[in-house]
Structure formats: C-alpha cells, structure tokens
Amino acid sequence: MSDLVPDVSTEAAADDAADAAAREFAQRRGSSSAPDGSEIGRALVVVVGDRAAHGDGDTALGSLIVELLEEAEFHVDATVVVSGDEVEIRNALNTAVIGGVDLVISVGGVGVGARDVTPEATEALLDRRLPGIEEAVRSSGLAAGATDAGLSRGLAGISGQTLVVNLADSRAAVRDGMATVTMLARHVIESISDF
Known about the structure:
By secondary structure, this protein is of the alpha/beta class. It is built from 8 helices and 6 strands. Keywords: Molybdenum cofactor biosynthesis.
C-alpha cells in the first residue's frame, strides 16, 4: 500500500529541478534582450485566485513568473493579486494596459470552473487575438505533461501597445508557458511598438 503514496520530497525535488531548468532556459534566451543589453520592456503579473486575494492562498506562482520575466530581461513593475471576479480581473488588466506596460501575464482562472473567468475578462480588452501564442502555450504545456495548460481556455492578444497572455495556475503550466511566451514576446513587442 505504501507504494501508492506519492513521495512528497521526490515531487518537491522534481519541481525544484524543473524550476531551475526553466530559469536556465530563460537565461539562455537572454540573447533575446535588446542588443545594447537593455531590458526588453516593462511587465506586470496578475495572480487570479479567491484564496490568494484574501491572503489565504499561495502566491509562489506569481514570484516564479517575476523571476522568469526578470531573467528574460523584463523589468517587472508589480504583481497584483485579484479574486476570480471578472470585473476585478478586467480592472487589473486594464490598469496595466493604461499604465503602458509592454507585457501582462495573468495566472489562474482559465479552467472550466464557475469562477474561471479570466478569458472572458481578457477578451473584452483585446484589440487583436494571437491564436498562435494561445495554441503554442496549450500544446507545449500538454506535451510537457501540464494537463491544465493543455486544457486551458487562456487567451493571448494585443490591447493597445500591450501583449496580454493568460496562463494556467500550476508550476508546470507556468514554467512551460513562460518558456514559450518569453521566446515570442520580444518579436511581438517590437512589432506593436513600430506603429
């Protein structure tokens, strides 16, 4: 019977190793920073979750996203935590867009539950969807074994001069999603800043 109980220390070690691999990947992608070594742009992280918004939940995924963004040469303005309320999510995303950040990454609220309304809040703000990024995040997440990433309803698109991307809220989905997003973000940001 003990063979069926997962070894938590082994799972934690695997998560730590995967996080280190994601950071190393982001660092290697550092060549995607501007040629003069400056930052690619400004970013904001939005963590969506009722428990986290009330101080009861874990916001470690937000910290992981910040770390991966910084290693990919983004300046992270802030991490904002909101509940799974469509108006709160939309307000947080809209504030980031109005504030002129280049990239907004939201994590959470992209599943099929009643409070998973991040895609609905995001869609109302987008001027142009980027289905290629949406599908890249889903397919790479599924290939990496992050089922929640593969089944995510998360969106990606442009609002004004800002790239907005929704990610699922598991460590695997964040690690894999960020590897995909940081690889594509510079090109998108350069393209939309040329207008």
